[in-house]
Each structure stands twice: as structure tokens, then as C-alpha cells.
UniProtKB/TrEMBL annotation:
GO annotations of cellular component type: membrane
Keyword vocabulary terms for this entry: Membrane, Transmembrane, Transmembrane helix
Similarity comment: family membership: Belongs to the major facilitator superfamily. Nitrate/nitrite porter (TC 2.A.1.8) family.
Gene3D superfamilies to which the protein is assigned, alphabetical: MFS general substrate transporter like domains
Entries under Pfam families matching the protein: MFS_1
Protein name per UniProt: Nitrate/nitrite transporter
Length: 284
């Protein structure tokens, strides 16, 4: 972006001084809080998409698919794998593109696996390989955690970064619980019949519309994307090229911490994913 474009960009904060008490009280905290709550909403929905397969996979065979238990477990594990890997490049994106721009992109792109999954579950001829690709794409949602936390840290003074990041990460992680609560409810409701979604009859007489579990997030993701576009900001002082950020990869502490966090999160999400199958199968 040229200097003239930056000057005319009303979303770009060119004089951001959160450590200045007067600036923070008069202007800074209001802007920071607005960005924080929009970020929380986007991150919460991202976690919903990340854990989507833990609710979908357990029901695939109930609507006509014939996947093995190992295949179903693989589908629930793949988003965690791709999400953990993608968190490394995602952590560099905010200084390159700006927090507002990257939040818009990283949120709206999650519409793709949701829409695709909704169509895939309606056709029992959909090959397992397609579900693998969609599951890997859901991992983009898990990577949003890295860029979201990095972005919010720029908005707050050091004394308040801990609480701000706790709110962003803590409430964002609630997306796991929200998805586990909402998905099992909406798959039995005639929500998208106007789009041709037909429920599959079950033994108890109910109709299972598995596409609902994926499509229910699409309008919410679009709303969050618009909110990010209207209400969030980029910070000029946080901009940095990829070349200036690469040296951090050479730091041993960075590699160790990133690896430990990724392993810890993969364990947590694998646990919850397999827990969803506990009522149907014996967890290996």
C-alpha cells in the first residue's frame, strides 16, 4: 500500500500509542475493545468450524456412508493436524497484511469447507478422499488462533495484554463447546429444506439432515466477516515484511514453545473428537 493510500485509509491506525495513558483513556481503549470483541466472535466461529468433523463423522454411516471406524477417526484428527501445522505461517500474516485484512480473509475462507461439506454429505457416492480434503481445510480454522492472538496483542498496552489475550483465546475456545451443543440439535431440524436438504430417516422415526451441521455456520461466518470489515482496524506500526520476521524461527525457545503448544492442543482436540464416538464405538 502506498503512502497516499495509507493516509486515506480510515481503517489504518497510523499513530497508535497504547502505552500513552492519556491516549489510551481518551481514544485507545475504545478502539481496542471494539477490535477485541469482533476478534472473539470470529475466533469462536473458527473453533466451531475446526471441530466440525467431530460432530459430523460420527453420523456419516447413519445417512448411508460405509466408512470404517479408523476412517472416521482419521477425519476427526485431520483438522487438528493441519491446524497445528498452519499456525506457524499464520502467526506471520498479521504484520504482513494487517490484522483487519487478515481477519476478514481468514474468516470468510472458512465458508468454503462448510459449504462443500454440506453438499458432500448429501451424496453417499462422495469418495472418502473428498472428505479428507474438506477435513484438512477445516484446519485453516484452527490456525486462526495464532493470527488472532498476535493481532490483539498489538492493540493493548503491555499491562493489559494478559487479560485481553485471555478473553480472546478463552472465549474463542468456547467455539468447541458451542459446536458440540448446536450441531447435534440442528441436524434434526428442517432448517435448509428450502435449499433442497432432505433428511435421512432414522430407526427412531426422526430425519437426520447432516448438512445442517455444516451450513448453519455459513451465515454466521459471513456476518462476522462483515463485522470485521466494518469494525476492525490495521495498525501501521505492526507492519513487517516476511524477511524481517524469519529470524525468529532460528530461536530455539520459539521452536520449543510452538511445538509444545501444538502437541498440547492436538491432544485436547483429539480427546474431544474421540469422545464424540464413545457412544458408538470402543475408542482404540
Amino acid at each position: 500500500m502506498s503512502a497516499s493510500n495509507e493516509k486515506n485509509n480510515r481503517y489504518l491506525l497510523t499513530d497508535w500509542k497504547p502505552e500513552n495513558p492519556a491516549f489510551w483513556e481518551n481514544k485507545g481503549k475504545h478502539i481496542a475493545r471494539r477490535n477485541l470483541w469482533i476478534s472473539v466472535s470470529c475466533l469462536l466461529l473458527a473453533f466451531c468450524v475446526w471441530m466440525l468433523f467431530s460432530a459430523v463423522a460420527v453420523n456419516l454411516n447413519k445417512i448411508g456412508f460405509n466408512f470404517t471406524t479408523d476412517q472416521l477417526f482419521l477425519l476427526t484428527a485431520l483438522p487438528s493436524l493441519s491446524g497445528a501445522i498452519l499456525r506457524v505461517p499464520y502467526s506471520f500474516m498479521v504484520p504482513i497484511f494487517g490484522g483487519r485484512r487478515w481477519t476478514i480473509f481468514s474468516t470468510v475462507i472458512l465458508v468454503i469447507p462448510c459449504v462443500w461439506l454440506g453438499f458432500a454429505v448429501q451424496n453417499t457416492a462422495t469418495p472418502f478422499g473428498v472428505f479428507i480434503i474438506i477435513a484438512l481445510m477445516c484446519g485453516f480454522a484452527g490456525a486462526n488462533f495464532a493470527s488472532s492472538m498476535g493481532n490483539i496483542s498489538f492493540f493493548f498496552p503491555k499491562a493489559k495484554q494478559g487479560s485481553a489475550l485471555g478473553i480472546n483465546g478463552g472465549l474463542g475456545n468456547l467455539g468447541v463447546s458451542v459446536m458440540q451443543l448446536i450441531a447435534p440439535l440442528v441436524i434434526f431440524l428442517p432448517i435448509f429444506t428450502f435449499l433442497g436438504v432432505q433428511g435421512v430417516p432414522q430407526a427412531d422415526g426422526s430425519l437426520l439432515s447432516l448438512a445442517n451441521a455444516a451450513w448453519i455456520w455459513v451465515p454466521l461466518l459471513l456476518i462476522a466477516t462483515v463485522a470485521a470489515g466494518i469494525g476492525m482496524n490495521d495498525i501501521a506500526s505492526s507492519k513487517a515484511s516476511i524477511a524481517s520476521q524469519l529470524p525468529v524461527l532460528k530461536r530455539f525457545s520459539f521452536v520449543v514453545i510452538k511445538s509444545a503448544v501444538s502437541r498440547h492442543l492436538r491432544f485436547i482436540y483429539r480427546f474431544f473428537s474421540r469422545l464424540c464416538h464413545a457412544g458408538e464405538n470402543t475408542v482404540p
